[in-house]
């Protein structure tokens, strides 16, 4: 695309859209590669940071969004008369963790992990746009599948699910690993034992 400032064009696209924009759409609109889009956005983010600006650009999966810097959240809330959201309950955080680390999952799977009914919590997380329906499982009754949303990434300040911290190993996992390590040796010992047929 001739005679156009690519970085300024990306800035204009993200600012005008308000919500996140897929990188493929930006590349298509500007007739450049997705890698070039990423390079220009990276340069914009550096410019904003170095100039101590009140805005920045965040990545949400395969999309980008222009947002206000979190440092100015109190002032923004005051001007916009926004009340702080009620923090998630322990039950909601547990359900959200099960969904995030195992998605897509059914309600039955979440309930099996937690041992209690999760209908209300899943409904609450869906209304907060942290969890959404991702289709149906091809089983009798075709239960709904749930997964996290783009808003989940935004709220937890991560670009993709790959940035979730690793789960700690449980004692059961360690004992299972030890058991698996012992199995080949046990099989070798059994193989050396004479059978009645011999």
What key attributes describe this structure?
3-stranded antiparallel β-sheet; Arc Repressor Mutant, subunit A; alpha+beta; 52% helix
Q: Can you put this structure into words, describing what you see?
A:
The chain has helices spanning 6-17, 23-30, 34-50, 73-80, 90-102, 107-114, 119-127, 150-155, 171-192; strands spanning 21-22, 55-60, 63-68, 105-106, 131-136, 144-148. With 198 residues, the chain is an alpha+beta fold. The N and C termini lie far apart (81 Å). The chain is built from 9 helices and 6 strands. The strands form 2 sheets. The protein has a 3-stranded antiparallel beta sheet with strand order 1-3-2. Strands 4-6-5 form a 3-stranded antiparallel beta sheet. The protein has 2 domains: 6-78, Arc Repressor Mutant, subunit A (Orthogonal Bundle), CATH 1.10.10; 90-163, Orthogonal Bundle (Arc Repressor Mutant, subunit A), CATH 1.10.10. The longest helix has 22 residues, at 171-192. The chain is globular, with a radius of gyration of 25 Å.
């Amino acid at each position: 695309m001739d005679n156009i400032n690519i970085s300024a064009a990306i800035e204009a696209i993200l600012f005008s859209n308000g919500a996140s924009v897929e990188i493929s759409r930006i590349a298509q609109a500007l007739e450049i590669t997705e890698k070039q889009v990423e390079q220009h956005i990276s340069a914009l983010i550096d410019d904003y940071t170095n100039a101590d600006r009140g805005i920045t650009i965040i990545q949400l999966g395969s999309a980008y969004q222009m947002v206000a810097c979190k440092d100015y959240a109190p002032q923004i809330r005051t001007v916009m008369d926004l009340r702080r959201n009620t923090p998630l309950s322990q039950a909601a955080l547990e359900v959200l963790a099960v969904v995030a680390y195992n998605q897509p999952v059914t309600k039955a799977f979440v309930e099996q992990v937690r041992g209690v009914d999760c209908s209300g919590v899943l409904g609450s997380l869906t209304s907060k746009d942290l969890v959404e329906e991702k289709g149906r499982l091809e089983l009798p009754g075709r239960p709904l599948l749930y997964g996290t949303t783009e808003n989940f990434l935004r709220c937890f300040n991560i670009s993709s699910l790959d940035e979730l911290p690793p789960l700690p190993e449980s004692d059961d996992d360690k004992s299972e690993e030890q058991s698996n390590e012992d199995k080949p040796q046990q099989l070798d010992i059994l193989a050396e034992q004479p059978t009645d047929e011999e």
